[in-house]
Amino acid sequence: MLDFENIIVGAGLAGSTIARLLADKGDSVLIIDQRNHIAGNTYDFFDENEILVQKYGPHIFHTNNEDVWIFLCRFTEWNDYKHRVLAYVDGKKVPVPINQDTINILYSKSYDTEELIEFYNNQKIDIAEIKNSRDVIVSQVGEDIYEKIFKNYTKKQWGVYPEELEPEVIARVPVRTNNDSRYFTDRYQGMPQEGYTRMIQNMLDHPKIKILLNTDFLEIQNELKFEKLIFTGCIDEFFKFKFGKLPYRCLNFKFETVDKEFYQEAAVVNYPNDYDFTRITEFKHWTYQKRPNTTIVKEYSSAEGDPYYPVPQKENYKLYEKYKKEAESLEKIYFAGRLGCYKYFNMDKVVEESMKLFHTLY
Ligand SMILES: Cc1cc2nc3c(=O)[nH]c(=O)nc-3n(C[C@H](O)[C@H](O)[C@H](O)COP(=O)(O)OP(=O)(O)OC[C@H]3O[C@@H](n4cnc5c(N)ncnc54)[C@H](O)[C@@H]3O)c2cc1C
Prior knowledge:
By secondary structure, this protein is α/β, with parallel strands linked by helices. It has helices at 13-24, 66-73, 100-106, 113-123, 133-158, 196-204, 217-220, 235-238, 284-287, 314-328, 337-340, 347-361; strands at residues 2-9, 29-32, 44-46, 52-54, 61-63, 85-89, 92-96, 188-190, 209-212, 224-231, 248-258, 268-270, 279-282, 294-302, 309-310, 333-335. Helix 1 (13-24) runs parallel beside helix 12 and helix 4 (113-123) packs across helix 5. The protein is globular and about 70 Å long. Flavin-adenine dinucleotide binds next to helix 1, helix 7, helix 11 and helix 12.
């Protein structure tokens, strides 16, 4: 029988944050992951070309939360990368979020800021009651931009068109009237200097923390004794799917080596309307590594496979509420992270929520 004060299931950012905070207080922690590595979906590693790649898709850190930033700075230094994304539309690559260049390139214009504001005003459509994500978009940028940039990308990503998604999925479309091409505008942004895996390794490097990999908690739970259990896996799986399965959008990744220094102009290029993949990521744009060749990854979205994105539809939230209620009736067992809370969290939010949970435990 393994006996720890705390058992944490999942060595992703959520589990690792809580593990470190508990260990800093002097508690013993066993952190278990079914995968053969730590760092959850932020896991990165050096591929055969010695390029630092991210196994589960591009993860760019950004936050306005100073406490989160200070906490993570204990475990890594950061480079100065500012994320930039292009979208391939009508044979042209244009910046997203939409800015002055996007419109001028797409419509072969040379609008200044004032003319651009007028353009947006002419495009947008008055909608009395915003009922879905399509309404959110066309009420801000109109039908044509919706068709070119948003409609098919959403269908590729979620398997449904924006009119079938809740308004909050695309709560607000960032529309810029200047040439700011940064994807995020948060105060703190960058990439961990030596990668996320190293950052999380440093987080878990504590005499009070033991790591157990290649182990499914649900298979060994009867062999464990604990005072507190923090579960960051799928909440429906914990309860043996007793109310039904929570749907997730899944991803498949196809990595390729390209025999030239750079493949594309930005780290990420979205393909809303062409090809089967949703986007191509090229890692060297943020690792700043000097290599004669480059690694890219094409991302495909599907309904089957490992769980990635909770599907933001009313009926799924209702189902989750049933599990949440069940979870609240348990003693000593807490649910955290994107799978435990069935919610898309950015990394900073995962750390923030994990810090909050820690404070409720202490
Ligand atoms: C494609 C993609 C891109 C993203 N890009 C960004 C981005 O650019 N910026 C950003 O801020 N956020 C991004 N995110 C969000 C980010 O991935 C999450 O916020 C974060 O990784 C969630 O951490 P977590 O610990 O909750 O979950 P995870 O990282 O998924 O960790 C959960 C861990 O629990 C383990 N586990 C589950 N069940 C069991 C079990 N029964 N037994 C043992 N172990 C178990 C899993 O193996 C996993 O390692 C992105 C997400 C995706 C899907």
